[in-house]
Amino acid sequence: MVKVDLSGAAAFFTSAGPNYALAEVAHKMLTERSGLGAEFTGWLELPQRVKATELDDILAAAQLIRSRSKALVVVGIGGSYLGARGAIELLKPYPGPGDPRILFVGNMLSADALGGTLELLGDADFDVNVISKSGTTLEPAVSFRIFRELLEKKYGDKADEHIFATTDAHRGVLKSLADAHGWKTFVVPDDVGGRFSVLSAVGLLPMAVAGIDVRRVIDAAQAEFQALDLRSPENPAWKYAAARQHLYGKGYNIEILACYEPSFRFMAEWWKQLYGESEGKDGKGIFPASVEFTADLHSMGQFIQSGPRTLMESVVRFSHSRRCYPFPFEAEDTDGLNYLAGRDIAEVSHVAADAVKEAHVAGGVPNIVIEVPMRDEEGFAALVCFFELACAISGYMSGVNPFDQPGVEAYKKNMFRMLGKPGAK
Ligand code: PA5
Q1: Which fold has domain 3-36+220-400?
Q2: In angstroms, what is the C-alpha Rg of the chain?
Q3: Is 246 a catalytic site residue?
Q4: Ligand 1 binding site (Cβ under 6 Å of any ligand atom)
Q5: Do 132 and 81 form a contact (C-beta atoms < 8 A)?
Q6: Residue 181 CA to ligand 1 centre (angstroms)
Q7: What is the mean pLDDT of residues 25-52?
Q8: Other Cβ atoms closer than 10 A to 146
């Protein structure tokens, strides 16, 4: 389990402190399926379900793709790509020699980005994993048509063998297309919303193709969800959910998620969607933003230290580094850095994190530390389970349905009308 340290937030709590009793009620609503959106809580059982159904198939498909292709083009948007991208950038930021490149499209409507990806792909062998639960989202549909055309030009009547569709088990345009063409399909379960789907085939197939050990991820996630069933204020998900709701009640309505690993960038994007889409509704919600330390201390540090006091800061810290890099000694010490000689860069980073915490807390920014043992498969699983559970608990604590996203439809309606889609008003 991750560890949550609230010592940097305690000075900002009122004497009552975080409302753990409400966190307990919210947790109960979730597991007893008595809360709003209970029909979308299947993510709690994804690890065991995936093992019993699709995991072997996912591994076989990944092996096939790895053996024949230089790239996997992943077509998807929002919950249909952010988890996989977060995992791959976190765990495989520097692909090994045998690892196919994972190229993400379908998450924008940019001719330049699409053209750039096509150029990057060149004439390399590739496969496509198109991911859309609804099967009707415009951005991935546009990219998919373009990459399907490319597959057809390249592989002719074998093109269909290079398409893997992850979609609803029964409904939608993508499902109908997949059935008509005989594409290999994987399922986005009915009871799992996009932003909670990373531990299904949605996240696991691209992760496995990238060379991540997804069986390790799933085994760890199963154990994590069990451990997180703890009904006590010691539960890190209760701590995090209750602390941020308490701080929100005191006017801290923006949360910045920070990490000292640059490879965490897309995990933060995944987290932003998870919390933004789950909590930002009915006029309520903590605005989720992210920063990358130490880089952003040199761009956003001023604002965090001295801007409006509406920010709370949650910092993901990995206790152990995957690499050791002792700082070199230099006899002449021309740059005056010998006081660091022999110390590991990871140690320097931990000291920097402590120094930043002290400064930000003194400057009026409540600080929550989320500590993960290692940037590995188990660490990734621990983060996913923790953030998902805490998000659901936090959403229920604030009285919203954390599992719907009605607001996302507004722009789509206008866009379809303006683009002249038949029947759009
Ligand atoms: O979390 C969600 O439900 C959304 O972000 C969706 O994942 C996103 O809109 C993509 O939808 P779909 O998978 O239906 O194409």
Answers
A1: Rossmann fold (3.40.50)
A2: 22
A3: no
A4: 77-80, 132-134, 137, 140, 193-195, 277, 405
A5: no
A6: 23
A7: 97
A8: 16
Task: Please report the beta strands in 222-346, taking only residues with DSSP state E, as ranges in sequence order.
Answer: 254-259, 287-292, 311-320
User: What is the pLDDT, as a whole number, of residue 156?
Assistant: 97
User: Whole-prediction pTM value?
Assistant: 0.97
Q: Which of 28, 51, 70, 412 is catalytic?
A: 412
Question: Mean pLDDT across the stretch 129-148?
Answer: 95
Q: Give nearest CA residue, ligand 1 atom 5.
A: 78
Three-class secondary structure of residue 223 per DSSP: helix
How far away, in angstroms, is 133 Cα from ligand 1 center? 7
Supply the residue whose CA is at minimum distance from atom 8 of ligand 1. Answer: 78
Q: Where are the domains of the chain?
A: 3-36+220-400, 39-216
- 374-390: pLDDT as tens digits: 999 999 999 999 999 99
3-36+220-400 and 39-216 have identical folds: yes
Mean pLDDT of 34-63: 97
Q: What residues contact residue 289 under an 8 Å CB cut-off, 6+ apart?
A: 254, 255, 256, 257, 272
- The CATH architecture that domain 39-216 belongs to is 3-Layer(aba) Sandwich (3.40)
Q: Is 169 helix (H, G, I), strand (E, B) or coil?
A: coil
The three-state secondary structure class of 255 is strand
Residue 220: CB atoms within 10 A of its CB come to 21
Tell me the Ramachandran region of residue 376: left when phi exceeds 0, alpha when psi lies from -120 to 50, beta otherwise. Answer: beta
Residue identified by tokens 């600080």 is 367
161-173 per-position pLDDT tens digit: 999 999 999 999 9
Residue 294, preceding peptide bond in cis (omega within 30° of 0): yes
